[in-house]
Design brief:
alpha/beta, Rossmann fold
């Protein structure tokens, strides 16, 4: 997917919390992000592509899924997963793994697509399309470039290569052959008084921003949340 580097020790662990408390917190977020989009069958074959240190795999295990697998380019992150989350992981380039022609019912990209070089994007998505069973689903979480503060997300990580709005993400998925595309803004659970107040303020700010966009002629600005959550399927 990108040039091999010691990503965990050089970047990742300095901007991410690897505590059990954080894994539990992220599990609540994933439940909110993907509510109604996960397979009912707990034996569904699930691939977490670009699994990092295993936050989503931890969530899948808590949800009772049995047949999940994680792949990431970083050997350091995979070793962390093996020691702290699950042995069902492999250090490998995502493109090479997808070319093995293994089939899955669900493939998940959490904060991955923005790391793919633009010239390789459609090849990557088509490989994912070919790796899904008929009726299989792709779930994506990416920073939302329509958010007025998205430049921080876009350039906070030097390994980011591309950004998406609702429209450009939809275009990419359609071009790769996906159907039944759903794209929505990310929401988050209220688990404290602070998050309750923050959510109220965020709604007010979003209403003001939408008004300002309309004044400038942007009548269909789409979701303005920090991240986009997308579901797309294979016929």
């Amino acid at each position: 997917m990108q040039e091999k580097m010691d990503y965990l020790n050089s970047i990742y662990k300095y901007v991410n919390d690897l505590s059990v408390k954080e894994f539990e917190r992220m599990a609540k977020f994933y439940q909110y992000y993907y509510n109604g989009l996960l397979p009912e069958n707990k034996n569904a074959r699930i691939l977490d592509l670009g699994c990092g240190t295993g936050h989503f795999l931890y969530f899948l295990d808590k949800k009772g899924y049995k047949n999940y697998y994680g792949v990431d380019l970083s050997e350091e992150e995979i070793n962390f997963c093996k020691e702290n989350v699950t042995k069902n992981v492999e250090a490998m380039d995502g493109f090479d793994f997808l070319k093995k022609n293994r089939k899955f019912d669900l493939i998940v990209l959490n904060d991955v697509l923005e790391h793919i070089k633009k010239e390789s994007l459609f090849e990557f998505l088509k490989l994912i399309h070919n790796s899904l069973e008929k009726g299989g689903r792709l779930l994506i979480k990416v920073p939302n470039m329509a958010n007025p503060f998205a430049l921080q997300s876009r350039y906070a990580d030097i390994t980011h290569d591309i950004g998406f709005t609702e429209l450009s993400l939809r275009e990419a998925l359609i071009t790769a052959g996906f159907k039944n595309i759903i794209i929505r803004g990310s929401s988050y659970p209220i688990y404290s008084y602070k998050t309750f107040i923050t959510k109220i303020i965020a709604r007010g700010v979003k209403a003001i921003i939408k008004f300002l966009l309309k004044v400038q002629g942007y009548y269909n600005a789409g979701p303005l949340e920090k991240h986009l959550i997308s579901s797309a399927s294979v016929d």
